[in-house]
Amino acid sequence: MEATGGAGGEGGGPSVGPVTFHKDVEPILQNNCLSCHYEGKIGGFSLVTYEEAEPMSGLIAAVTEQGLMPPWGAHTTDECEPRLPYKDDLRLSAEELAILRAWDDQGAPQGDPADAPPPFQPPAEGLANADLNLVPNEMSTVEGESDQFICVVYDPALTEDKWVDGVHFIAGDPTVAHHALTFRASRNDAIDLSGGNERFECFGAPAGELIHAWAPGGLPLEMPENVGIKLTPDDVIIVQMHYHPTPGETKQDASTIQLRFTDTDPEYGFMVALPGNAEDEGDGLLPGPNDAGAPEFRVPANTKDHTETMEIVVPTEFFVDVPILMVAPHMHYVGVDLKFEIHRATLPASQPQDECFVHNTAWDFGWQRFYQFDVPIAELPTVKAGDVLTITCKYNNTMSNPFLQKALAEQGEAAPIDVTLGEETLDEMCLVGVGLVVPAAFL
Predict the structure, then answer these.
(1) Which residue stretches of the chain have pLDDT < 50?
(2) CATH of domain 272-442
(3) Rounded to an integer, what distance in angstroms lies between the CA atom of residue 178 and that of residue 214?
(4) Phi and psi of 283, rounded to 5°?
(5) Of 97, 350, 386, 438, whose CB count within 10 A is highest?
(6) How many Å apart are CA 32 and CA 370, to the nearest integer?
(7) CATH fold of the domain at 132-266
(8) Do 367 and 74 touch, CB atoms closer than 8 A?
(9) pLDDT given at position 208
């Protein structure tokens, strides 16, 4: 097999010679697909064996070429070339894409079983050396035809301040758990939202601060050495569960949150800032192509290519260079594309004045995640007072947007409506969760 260079996808990928399932395709599936496409997982079908994968060869080639699978929204584009690698990057290489296409084009041959890699072993569920396993007292009932968003309150019942250096989510029923967002919130805020119950319906973000995002196949969030997430006795964990029901079936789920505490207080704390969601010019919203007068956040009905751009000046509280550990784009169902950049007012050592952190070119609400930079703390990008953060969000508010079609149907609407900022299903957002590493004394 010989790669000749070029990008993956039809017409532009490396040329490859004869390929077979066991020698060439099976290793790719094991490394990138089987965490979801394994018996009992949410992928819906298994790709473990040749007999299971062979009928899917065309689908596998198509969805990987289109970038739909494996689910990974951050891409290198003409507009954005992130200079740092992401941790646990799921993207396939150009050669891997070419192999999957060639396998289908060549009739999906099996090859010699002696060429197969060792049998697939599902990744071990769990956070190493977890100190606390939080499980809800009640089960969530998952049924019907529409996706469900349920917030579940987990109370660690701490008696003193603790620092967490590891967080992990374990789905109780991985056939219906589509993704989960984990927030740190005050107990009083959780009671106000839930009425004192353990769970409540929620589409938008609950109170508190996002600290973790899980999707099928997701690994534990483990802080870099000497970094922790502070929890106080007044804090609880709220997990927003996105359930994808199995039509015609009623299922029960009680998922687990694992926490691992540090033995000593860390030097740095992890916190999440949420720049974006500017409503007017004074907040950083720039004039847009469809504004009626002054800048406004409004995505008109039946507009396919609408853009909202926000420029946020970093406030004076950030008087030193603060490392950025990870970024998490966020929109709802009308959103299709989000780009997050910085223009540094002063130039720190070894960092460019202008930098693009992430470009999510095919936004999918169902696959939200943090994109963590895979470098030591000393090499992380930084942000400081006076720097300008730019968030560019694009929207498709027409029936050609399949995610909007589904959301409209679930809300009983027959046609697109004007969309503004808000927490509801047919509202929109344009923001980024920015995971920062700050001196622990500041928290």
Answers:
(1) 1-11
(2) 2.60.120.230
(3) 9
(4) -90, -5
(5) 97
(6) 18
(7) Jelly Rolls (2.60.120)
(8) no
(9) 84
- Helix%, strand%, coil% for the chain, nearest 5: 15, 30, 50
Encode burial over 249-266: b for 16+ CB neighbours within 10 A, e otherwise.
eebebebbbbbbbbeeeb
Q: Which residues contact 303 (CB under 8 A, 6 or more apart)?
A: 290, 395, 396, 397, 398
Buried b (16+ CB within 10 A) or exposed e, 426-438: bbbbbbbbbbbbb
**Structure token pair of residue 96:** 């891997």
Helix (H) or strand (E) holding 60: helix 57-65
Output DSSP code: residue 403: H
> Quick one: DSSP state of residue 421?
B
For residue 224, give both structure tokens: 């870099």
- Residue 54 is predicted with a pLDDT of 97
What pLDDT score was predicted for residue 9?
36
Start-to-end CA distance of the chain, whole Å, equals 54
CA-wise closest residue to 425 among 369, 380, 367, 365: 365
Helix axes 57-65, 94-105, angle to 10 degrees: 150
Phi and psi of 244, rounded to 5°?
-115, 100
Q: Residue 345 CB: number of other CB atoms within 10 A?
A: 13
**What pLDDT score does 174 carry?**
83
Using the structure block, give the residue that is written with the tokens 């997701």: 218
> What are the angstrom distances between the C-alpha of 311 and each of 175, 221, 230, 335, 384?
40, 30, 30, 18, 15
Query: Taking the domains of the chain in order of start, what are their residue ranges?
Result: 21-115, 132-266, 272-442
Reading across the β-sheet that carries 354-360, which strands appear in turn?
Answer: 303-313, 388-397, 335-343, 354-360
Residue type, 232: T
Question: Residue 114 phi/psi, 5° resolution?
Answer: -65, -20
- Predicted local distance difference test score (pLDDT) of residue 424: 84
Residue where the block lists tokens 């589509």: 178
Q: Name the strands in the sheet holding 209-214, side by side, starting at the edge strand that comes first in the sequence.
A: 199-201, 148-154, 235-243, 177-186, 209-214
Pairing outcome for strands 209-214 and 148-154: unpaired
Tokens 């969530």 correspond to 140
Task: Note the pLDDT of residue 13.
Answer: 59
Residue 283, judged by CB atoms within 10 A of its CB (0-12, 13-18, 19+), counts as middle
Q: Residue 345: phi, psi to the nearest 5?
A: -70, -35
DSSP single-letter state for residue 114: G
What per-residue confidence (pLDDT) applies to 109? 97
